[in-house]
Amino acid sequence: MTLTVPQNQETEAQILERLDRSPTLLDVRGLCVDYVTEAGNIRACDEIDLTLKRGEILGVAGESASGKSTLLNALGRLQRMPAATSAGSIWYHPGGDEPAVDLAALDEEELAPYRWTKVSVVMQSAMASLNPVIRLGEQFTDVIRTHDPRLGEKEAMAQAGDLLTMVGISRDRLTAFPFQLSGGMQQRALIALSLACDPDLVLMDEPTTAVDVVMQRQILDQVLAAQERLGFAVVFVTHDLSLLLEISDRIAIMYGGKIVEVGTAARLHHDAKHPYTRALRRAFPPLSEPVRRLSGIPGSPPDLLDLPSGCAFAPRCELAMPICHERPPELREIPQGRSACFITNGELDDAERARQQAAASGDHAPKGGESA
Amino acid sequence: MTIRALDGVDLTLYPGQISALVGESGSGKTTIARLFALIYRPTSGELLYNGTPIRVRGGRAERAYYRNVQLIYQDPFASLNGLKKIRTIISRVVKIHFPRLGRAGIRARAAELLERANMTPTSRYLDRYPTDLSGGQRQRVAIARALAVNPKVLLADEPTSMLDASIRLDVLNLLSDLRETEKVAVMYITHDIASARYLSDRINVMYGGKIIEAGSTESIISAPVHPYTKLLLSAAPDPARYKGSGKPTHEPIADSRPVDNTSDIRGCRFADRCPVAMPKCTSEDLPLFRSIRDSHTVQCWQAEDDADYERASSDRSRTPKNSAKKE
Amino acid sequence: ACGGGSDTETTSDPAGGSGARATEGTIDNDGILRIGATVATSNVFPENFNVFGGGDSAPGNALFWETLFRISSTDGSKLVPNLAESVEYTEGGKVATYVLRDDVTWNDGEKFTSKDVAFTYGFIFEEPGTTPDENGNLPWLAKAIETPDEKTVVVTYNEPQYTEDLPLSLYFPIYPEHIYKDLDRQNYQDRDPVGTGPGRLKKFAGQQIEIEIRDDYWGEIAPELTEVHLIPSGTAGNIESQITKGDVDWSQGGAPGVVTNFVTMEDHNGYYYYPDGSTRGIIMATHKGPTQDVAVRRALRAAADMSIVAEAAGIAYTVPSITGLDTGIYASMLKDEFKDPMTPDLEAAKKELADAGWTVNEAGNLEKDGTEHPLKLHIQNDNPAEMTTMPIVVDQWSKNLGLKVAFTPLPPDVFGPAQAKGDYELSLWTTNAAGGAFQAFTMYMHTKIYEIGDETADGNYGRWKMPQAANDAIMAITTTPPDQVDQITENCQILQQAVADEAPYIPVQSNGAGGMFTTKKWSGLKEASEIDYFPRVDGYNNLIRTVTDLTPSKA
Amino acid sequence: MPRSHRTWTGRLAGLSFLGQRLALYAIVAIASVLLNFILPRFMPGDPATQMIREITNRTGAPPSGYQTRLIKARYGDPDRPLALQFWDYISQLFKGDLGVSAQYYPITVTEMIGKALPWTLYLAIFSTILGWIVGTYLGARLGWKPGRRLDAIVTPVSMFFSSIPAFWLGLLIVWYFAYTHGWFPNQGAYDNSLDIDLLSPSFLLSVLHHGALPFFTLIIVGFARWLFSMRNMMITTVNEDYVQLARAKGLAQNRIRNRYAARNALLPNFTGLAQSMGGALTAVILAETVFIYPGIGSLLTGAQAARDYPVMQGVMLMVIFASLLFNFIADSVYVLLDPRTREAN
Amino acid sequence: MLKRFLLIGKVQVGLAIIAVFTLVAIFGPWFSSTVLAMSPQDVDYKHLTGGPPDSTHWLGTTSQGQDVLSWMLHGTRTSMLVGFASAIIGTVLTIVIGAWAGFSGGLADKILNGAILVFGNFPTFALLFIVAAAFQNANWLLVSIVIGGIEWAGGARQIRAQTMSLRGRDFTTALRTVGESRARIILVEVMPHLLGVISPLFLGLIAAGVNQQAALAFLGIGNPSEPSWGLMINWAMTQNALFRGLWWWFVPPGLALCLIGFATTMVNFGLDEITNPTLSSKRMKLMRIFLRDKARRAAAQAPQEVAAR
Ligand SMILES: Nc1ncnc2c1ncn2[C@@H]1O[C@H](COP(=O)(O)OP(=O)(O)OP(=O)(O)O)[C@@H](O)[C@H]1O
Ligand SMILES: Nc1ncnc2c1ncn2[C@@H]1O[C@H](COP(=O)(O)OP(=O)(O)OP(=O)(O)O)[C@@H](O)[C@H]1O
Ligand SMILES: [Mg+2]
Ligand SMILES: [Mg+2]
């Protein structure tokens, strides 16, 4: 089966305009998530503020352990032991005149009507996400019928078949057990499943890392095609910044449990405001641009149990200024996005920034280095 | 059931060069690396080292072989014994291969090796356990261990795929530097064609146990012939095609089934997914075409009409005397 | 001993057990007597009454099978007529002529006749003949058993057999010829016994055996008694608990402590102990180790107070005389100085040892001439009473002589063969068999001295070679007709003296039959002095005699 | 792929799994038969000599000539070549002939086991299954929301329960409930005065009454291990992605717990059930000796006390065969429950 | 790992119990003879039919007037001796067979795995019973050999699986490809990784050994002159302690058996919590506290918010 390939014809301005017009879907305020461990509480998401518009594709990128999955699970209210949302709210706007609800404040029962019909998820490992001892069909129909009890088993099954066909899997596989499908098929089945109740938002946590580039591309095409047709919003988490640049309307960069920069793909591509974003960008060799020697980010990711007092990235940052080690910068609105770097977020006035930068170039050289 | 993981592969590594091996999952890349590392044995054909066939089995000869050829594993978390100190891990190899060095000599050598792998100051790492190190650091320890024997050939099986984006480049750069300083031949196995382009001098593209296209990095990237190579290139994410750039994305991709290595197929294994497949792709043996200008070779009928290519031979996968050699 | 009954005053005899204090029953009598059968730990009955088969037969078989004579519990084990009216020995004891009762029928209605006896004795004694076999043994019978008429049986032996009726009366009941003659006797699984006894099998219920009492039995049985049920009793505790609850009326045996626990538990509970003439004792090796020295043997014997031991056992057995003979049963035969139960004499013991040059060293071992000899007491570990008592004996040796004898209980499979081989210096076993002067010392006849290492030793595990005079005396008993009591007694006293002097064993316990009962439903068990049988469940005739005496308790 | 075809091959896959297990059990069975044959022959003394001594011990006199000859004829000639003896043994076995009891000659071992085995199976099967159900149910409950007060109490308590040796607990229970208070009978499988009649209510009631203490004991010592494994498996399963996905789907809590979490967590407990039957028989054998229950445990200990090797061997063989049979039944159920064994690709 | 393991309360309790019993096994008989001045064989003529605990006999006396505490102290030695000896034998077999099968692969593995499966599916107690019954009067060493020789299958299966996975693990292949010899890989490099599996196996085998010995002794198999817990229960039962109500005779040895079993269960539970952190009860507790604090904070905030409005 061949799919229509997304054409990427919008310009950055058009994208921004579309987002602007679109009503807000999700409004995250001050969301904090902790992992309660014997060693101490790990704050894997710290004061996350985020706004998601209807139909928007938001990419989330960052190093391993930066809190991407944690954020996603918190948005879907899917944390499991030992994670707990410790503060903040997730305002969901149902649209129309209905008032917004704070998903973070609902208990499991109150959440039920929102699950899957409003917010659905695609997890990283399809193999682990499908129940190995239940036939594929039932894993579709149970959710379909839970949310639309009027449907009979047959109709639900037919609907499930349609969903599978949409992602290029023949409907007779409904009687198969998950282990009878190949990895790529499972992943696609999971995507089909996520669309079963026509959600407003699909949370995707690295849905393609386990598969081959070619398969990855194919799955993405299917997601994007469905998204174009159904208009749901997507939060897409991955390591792979190159990939995010290709598919997201906006991208949020996470570092040490915080969002450090938000911007459109275009802006992040040529005008990233945060040194971490730029370093991350450089870590992916291009395919079509001329080859030059690139370098990775020195040092190692921060230990969330023992975060530096200032900006978490400061120890690895070439441009770190004295103030960066003193207090964390705020995530502030900047043109076409947000940034949490003293150099670019406008928190410091120009004079102060110049003074700081001068001080930095004095003892320059990134601190930390290879400290492990 | 037999799985033909490799099927008539010719692959040559040259000193001071990095050859990349790219291809989809299950195409046989690891199998090649493990063949070279004598972990697997070929069912037919032979391995040549410096032109002589390798026929070692255990013992002294195997040790001698490993003095020249070393493998770096994909997962640095698994390839180091977590219960041994870095010092032990490295000096043990030194001791095996240079027993006459003496205690102090081995000590010095271990430190020197870590230094070569950019692990400075070495004293900070020697007495730690692998579990105390980050992935990138572990991979560098693994490389240092491989360097302990002064190898002529390094086989790096996806050395960065388990590593975080931010540290991946350091490992690649280290390999790149070793090519220059140690004049080793490196085989770099990867999924990621962009990193292959970044690092290597040559690229070999594998599909279904065969090397379907090989050539200098430049020619493979800029002038691919085989439809699979093209597909690989277009499927790989490219930051330059960022959303809003207006740049068209890739071509549509046919339904992709993973390659089926169990069936005995005549001709091209890619034919059933190939947008430009012809009847003869599966009815005739696959010929090998060679570029008239450089060392670019391709196993695909697409090259038949291309003026740049001449037919070198027919598919030799059925003939038993294939060889995979290193010189 | 004593029995409880509605019409007899209850008494208590420290040696014989203690009777029920209540004189009246409490439960309506349903005509069923329930007897607790000691069936090891399993209550799966063998459904087989063929006592001539190889293995254990079902309990209660004594209600079906009877012997020609039974052995009196008094009067030096005299024969008491049973199915036979009399026996006469002629030709110097070589011919025994039996006269049978003629009012006996089998429980299937057939008449009991001499041919049944001939049939039964025929397969016991096997083929007659007068030529010795390859081992030089003559066949038992000189010629086939004759039955001149329905009432008379003539058995002709090759040698005088005055004592042969004792084992015959103990172990060989008469079988019905009309049933068994065509059967493979040994391999026949008898599920429907046809016997002369009062019992007729009603059924093998899953967990008990139900036996009806027939009306046409030749003996007398209380008319109220219609059925006897044999009920398995897995452990000692279970028997005691069942009797206490009234589920079982009577059971043989008694666990350690029965006199202090069980009897006091309920007014109706009672316990008795009747010595049967046999004795358990500690056999001392006369062929090896320090016990070769008679002084050591006598010292060991004199250094333990067996009455304390008896008390600890709590099953009301008595201590025999130093000869090993029971002081009650053999009262008329015992020499005057041996008429009382054995008593310890510590001073004598120490003196014996010292005189013979033995010392007890630091480690508690006997020492002589610089070599020390550790001693072990071996017992078979499956007898709870002995497991209780022997540690006390060992402790007494330790306290009295400073001698540390290792207490070593062994499983039967290990104990038996090694004892037979004579491996042990001290081991607990039966030292005197029941059944009269001859039986009491039969294992010590010179013909029964076995080489060490031999697999069997016929009871003389200590390899004691009795003085020639004693051996002559025991041989004389076999050739003395049973009615010449004085001559037998005289010979017996020679034997007594030999045992007292040479101390081949330490008598511990007058063996016998203990029994527990409740008078809730049945009473009438008699005093030992009133009866000439043992109230036991096993052993032919005893069960029938006991049942005969029982009458319903008054509610 | 047409559906019928798939289920057909699916069934084949399940069968081949069972076939493999069956082959394994066949090997175990053969091994145990061999062991059973060889072991008594390693023992000191041959059965015939054993028997003679037995009689001597019992009657105080050695068996008479005819008895001795009979015994020797019956228990085989120890000088016959081992291979031939083994052949005799095997061919007898195939005829269902386990030999003749030495203690209760001439009753056959088959008859004795036939009377005892049903009781043991009744105890073993019901106590194991009841314990399994109780343990698994509680475990599923505790594991669904671990760390609550109920969990904090029940888990350690059952940990202690699981460590109690069955025979000892049996003793305590007999002592207290049967001897001291007389609330329950202290021996037997039913009232002595009753006949076996599966249709009679009074018989059945009596069976329940007599079985109460053994069942109680076996369940107390047996349920806890199921509780732990189910609890732990449940906790692990609840953390599995597919359960999280079920949560995300907004399914009813009950459905998530039962259909998604418990169902999957149950699988290891099933394998465990299969493997536990052998062990359960052990506990039952020990318990029977305490409760004087007329099963093969009592038979076995009685036979061991009397050195009745034919019975011991027969019982062992039965125990082994029974536990293999249970293994196989549980394997078959497992195939029904876990499609992965059934429809492997 | 080890430290974390030792920090778990359950593990501490479990190990402490085993340590205490081990100490009693070592010093108990000495304590009995010097402090109590009694041996199990000594008879107290004042208590010839058994007496409840009092000041001279802290755990009472048996029906032959012997001191139960002395019995317990000596019995602990035999029981623990059997436990340790059978565990050592079983563990050695477990390691040798499991590691050999796991490492060699091929035919050797097939055969060994067959043996593991056969023994694993064998009702071991049945086998133990006949073997032990065959060796009448078996002393503690023989019983240990029999128990150890039978109880290895479960562990060997684990070790085999573990070594197979270790063999397939990159680091062993890596060692081969640097020219390390195979023997050294197994003995020096891989063995330490098995410790995590072996140590709980060892503990489990101790408990199994102690229990099996007790069960055998309870059934009257084994050496009746070696005081052990099972023998105490056996004697108590055969000498009618139940009916006579001499509970102090059979309760202590049974409790000791329970405690040994309990200890290993605890340790294994702790181990589970280490290898599978979701099972960690400590973590569950922390979580409960965290959520409680959060709820408190929310409750404290709510009125303030109302006031602010
Ligand atoms: N179950 C857990 N227990 C304790 N800490 C956890 C747990 N899961 C995650 N963390 C910690 O939370 C932080 C964020 O983890 P998270 O999984 O969200 O990262 P991520 O960005 O998704 O990383 P990756 O790219 O590797 O998936 C990390 O420091 C991690 O160590
Ligand atoms: N141990 C094995 N047993 C069976 N088949 C194997 C084994 N190892 C490899 N194969 C098969 O051989 C083929 C080549 O595998 P190989 O691991 O060399 O691929 P690869 O290109 O390295 O894949 P990846 O990119 O996933 O690492 C695959 O089809 C695989 O299924
Ligand atoms: Mg993640
Ligand atoms: Mg690979």
UniProtKB/TrEMBL annotation, chain A:
UniProt KW Nucleotide-binding keyword: yes
InterPro entries per the UniProt record, alphabetical: AAA+_ATPase (IPR003593), ABC_transporter-like_ATP-bd (IPR003439), ABC_transporter-like_CS (IPR017871), Oligopep_ABC_C (IPR013563), P-loop_NTPase (IPR027417)
Domain ABC transporter: 28-281
SUPFAM superfamilies on file: P-loop containing nucleoside triphosphate hydrolases (SSF52540)
Region called Disordered, residue ranges: 352-372
Gene3D superfamilies noted in UniProt: P-loop containing nucleotide triphosphate hydrolases (3.40.50.300)
Pfam family, one: oligo_HPY
Keywords on record: ATP-binding, Nucleotide-binding, Transport
One annotated GO molecular function: ATP binding
UniProt cross-references to PANTHER family, sorted A to Z: MALTOSE ABC TRANSPORTER, ATP-BINDING PROTEIN (PTHR43067:SF3), OLIGOPEPTIDE/DIPEPTIDE ABC TRANSPORTER, ATPASE SUBUNIT (PTHR43067)
Protein name: ABC transporter ATP-binding protein
Organism: Brachybacterium hainanense
Automatic annotation (TrEMBL), chain B:
InterPro entries for this protein: AAA+_ATPase, ABC_transporter-like_ATP-bd, ABC_transporter-like_CS, Oligopep_ABC_C, P-loop_NTPase
GO molecular function, one term: ATP binding
Alphabetic keyword roster: ATP-binding, Nucleotide-binding, Transport
Keyword Isomerase appears in the UniProt entry: no
Biased composition (Basic and acidic residues): 248-258, 309-327
The ABC transporter domain, residue ranges: 3-233
Annotated spans, Disordered: 240-259, 303-327
NCBIfam families: oligo_HPY (TIGR01727)
Protein name per the record: ABC transporter ATP-binding protein
Species this chain originates from: Brachybacterium hainanense
TrEMBL record, chain D:
UniProt cross-references to Pfam families, sorted A to Z: BPD_transp_1
Membrane topology: Multi-pass membrane protein
Domain ABC transmembrane type-1: residue ranges: 117-330
Transmembrane segments: 21-39, 119-140, 152-178, 198-224, 273-296, 316-337
CDD domains, per database record: TM_PBP2
Primary localization class, coarse: membrane
Compartment(s): Cell membrane; Membrane
Family note: Belongs to the binding-protein-dependent transport system permease family.
Cited PANTHER family: OLIGOPEPTIDE TRANSPORT SYSTEM PERMEASE PROTEIN
Protein name: ABC transporter permease
Origin species: Brachybacterium hainanense
Automatic annotation (TrEMBL), chain E:
Residue stretches making up the ABC transmembrane type-1 domain: 76-268
Pfam families the UniProt entry points to: BPD_transp_1 (PF00528)
Keyword annotations from UniProtKB, A to Z: Cell membrane, Membrane, Transmembrane, Transmembrane helix, Transport
Transmembrane spans: 12-31, 80-103, 115-135, 141-159, 185-210, 246-271
Record PROSITE patterns: ABC_TM1
Localization per record: Cell membrane
Membrane disposition: Multi-pass membrane protein
Gene3D superfamilies documented for this protein: MetI-like (1.10.3720.10)
Homology family: Belongs to the binding-protein-dependent transport system permease family.
Protein name as it appears in the record: ABC transporter permease
